[in-house]
Specification:
Number of strands: 30
Number of helices: 18
Shape: globular
Bound molecules: 5'-O-[(S)-butoxy(hydroxy)phosphoryl]adenosine
Radius of gyration: 24 Å
Largest sheet: 8 strands, mixed
Length: 633
């Protein structure tokens, strides 16, 4: 890990180098990975088209970097420590050697079931080691995985399956989460009723609940694994640096989620580089990231980055409050976790239980704490610092996105200064700029604007699957020659960055991204709904809650009952994470003469403001605002 930044001066030096000579900078970083064939040129890029290529014509397989490379010196080191949902069940410690073997075997299973390089494979599983094995096995043979978070509905799965043109799925019979057993396979079966393109489903047995297995289509993971002849395992597929590694769907401001595409070489380099530097990891570190692998955080900082760096990754199947709110701390002690990485929403929810669940826990193995997913409020930051870090662990506030593949703006633990509420400074290689609405770059400090990045980094989004124009419009069209993040940002007097939240119609609920249009579309599918408008509202635990204004053809007699029915529909169409916290039935929506909904006003009313609603004179029907504010329907 020659690219590890070792001091604040080193940070400055590397940062300057990364701006003045980006190709030299990244060639140095990339050199410490294993390439079958080195690249011809480091970077080709054009943000107008957009087209970005890193490590052009380089050949590699990411799993050789995650696994094979460690076998000689570290084969017996735990790659994954898996903590089950229930404390009564045995944990699993999987060494690099064992993980390598299982990945190779499952790669053979995929091949024998017809999966080829470039095929898309959807994975819908709970947090079991086989999820990591499945994704690495896809990467081993060059298949493109598309993981769908286990909380999404059948409808969300089929939308993604169809968009990705996937013919293969990997799932579990079910998943254990807290006190619940979630019937994943049933949901997959519902999804497949609407996506006949799927030819094969491989089912890992986790819960042993009864499932329907369709002849010719569905096969059991454990049965397939026994058919593999270990002596005949094939070598890893040679991939081009720019071959897609995975697709991950994420919400945008318009209708359907888009499939963010990451490619092999650049993603590997950046996920690992950012992991090593932000958390300042050491070779034998134990890293516990509490995210689900269904999100980008889990892709980069449970699986790819951690394994490439040769560390130990703790993977937890359950939830922070089961069987009690001390679970995370118990895990940290039990496995001597050095780096703990979670979301502000989890910190806030644990804070609500007070310090009792944390008392009596040692937590002395912890060295670095991290947060991700949403702005962290100061109260939560200080609680984390005092009660978890005992004021001796730096907290890294890491800003990044599904589209960026890795952490972009963050302090580097113990190397660059932290500041509560601030993601602080960009990593070397990242060039943030703030833009005003007119498209001017805001120079200097103490300015607020829209956050853009003006130069490519290795794990930048390459395209949105099947629709490159959508990628261009979403990220590269708002400001010419820049990648637009969708976030607002403030740069303080010291040049530190504070992310202020989305400036588009995207909500951040418990660190999960949800498009208002997506929720509205789901609500509008409910019988009797004529129109709806969804806005975010501050929420103590979730950061943002979802507030829905709904117009019905006939006003309901029993608001609560109809609202509950609407929530059912949203759960069915998207998943429980998109359920509105509040539904208000209204007669109309505040619209401009051109028909645009004035969300600004709706946001204020949702926050409880009834008087100072700003200028309503441009509205088609200003009276409607008075009615909504008064809660009249
Ligand atoms: C959006 C990206 C990247 C992992 C998890 C979310 C918000 C993310 C921070 C942070 C303030 C943050 C942004 C961003 N966000 N990290 N440290 N401080 N806001 O990935 O689902 O792609 O969401 O999450 O608004 O655009 P995602």
């Amino acid at each position: 890990m020659d690219y590890r930044i070792t001091s604040y001066d080193d940070y400055r030096k590397k940062y300057d180098e990364s701006v003045n000579n980006p190709e030299g900078f990244w060639a140095d970083v990339a050199s410490s990975f294993f390439w079958r064939k080195k690249w011809d040129s480091v970077l080709e890029w054009d943000f107008i088209k957009p087209e970005v290529k890193w490590f052009v014509n380089g050949k590699l397989n990411i799993t050789e970097n995650c696994l094979d490379r460690h076998l000689e010196g570290n084969g017996d080191k735990p790659a994954i420590i898996w903590e089950p949902n229930s404390k009564d069940e045995a944990n699993r410690v999987i060494s690099y050697r064992e993980l390598h073997r299982d990945v190779c075997k499952f790669a053979a299973v995929l091949r024998s079931n017809g999966v080829k390089k470039g095929d898309r494979v959807c994975i819908y599983m709970g947090m079991v080691p086989e999820l990591a094995i499945a994704m690495l096995a896809c990467a081993r043979i060059g298949a493109i995985h598309s993981i769908i978070f286990g909380g999404f509905s059948a409808r969300s799965i089929s939308d993604r399956l169809i968009d990705a043109g996937a013919a293969y799925m990997i799932t579990c019979d079910g998943a254990f989460r807290g006190g619940k057993t979630i019937p994943l396979k049933d949901t997959v079966d519902d999804a497949l009723a609407n996506s006949p393109g799927v030819e094969k489903v491989i089912v890992f047995q986790r819960t042993h609940n009864p499932v329907s297995m369709i002849k010719g289509r569905d096969v059991w993971w454990h049965e397939e694994m026994t058919k593999v002849d270990e002596a005949e395992l094939l070598p890893a597929e040679e991939m081009d640096a720019e071959d897609p590694l995975f697709i991950l769907y994420t919400s945008g401001s318009t209708g359907k989620p888009k499939g963010v595409v990451h490619t092999t070489g650049g993603y590997m380099v950046y996920a690992t580089y950012s992991f090593v530097n932000v958390f300042q990891v050491k070779q034998d570190d134990v890293h516990f990231c509490t995210a689900d692998i269904g999100w980008i955080t889990g892709h980069s900082y449970i699986v790819y980055g951690v394994l490439c760096a040769g560390c130990t990754s703790v993977m937890f199947e359950g939830i922070p409050t089961y069987p009690d709110a001390g679970r995370f701390w118990e895990i940290a002690d039990r496995y001597k976790v050095n780096v703990f990485y979670t979301a502000p929403t989890a910190i806030r929810s644990l804070m609500a239980y007070g310090s009792q669940p944390i008392e009596g826990k040692n937590l002395d193995s912890l060295r670095v704490l991290g947060t991700v997913g949403e702005p962290i409020n100061e109260e939560a930051w200080h609680w984390y610092d005092e009660h978890v870090g005992k004021k001796r662990c730096p907290i890294v506030d890491t800003w990044w996105q599904t589209e960026t593949g890795g952490i972009m703006i963050s302090n580097l633990a113990g190397i660059t200064p932290a500041k509560p509420g601030f993601a602080t400074l960009p990593l070397p290689g990242i060039q943030p700029v703030l833009m005003d609405e007119q498209g001017n770059v805001l120079e200097g400090n103490e300015v607020s604007g829209n956050l853009c990045i003006r130069f490519p980094w290795p794990s930048i989004i390459r395209t949105t699957y099947g629709d490159h124009e959508r990628c261009r419009l979403n990220y590269f069209a708002a400001y010419e020659g820049m990648y637009f993040t969708g976030d607002g940002c403030y740069r303080d007097k010291d040049g530190m960055y504070r992310i202020t939240g989305r400036v588009d119609d995207v909500l951040n609920v418990s660190g999960h991204r949800i498009g208002t249009a997506e929720v509205e579309n789901a609500i509008n599918m409910h019988t009797g709904v004529l129109e709806s408008a969804v806005v975010g509202v501050p929420h103590d635990l979730k950061g943002q809650g979802i507030y829905a204004y709904v117009i019905m053809d006939v006003m309901p007699d029993d608001d609560a009952h109809t609202a509950a029915d609407i929530l059912q529909t949203v759960t069915r169409i998207i998943g429980p994470i998109a359920r509105p916290d509040k539904v208000q039935f209204v007669k109309g929506l505040p619209k401009t003469r051109s028909g645009k909904i004035m969300r600004r006003i709706l946001r204020k009313i949702a926050e409880g403001e009834t008087r100072q609603l700003g200028d309503t004179s441009t509205l088609l029907d200003p009276d409607i605002v008075t009615l909504i504010a008064a809660g009249k329907k």
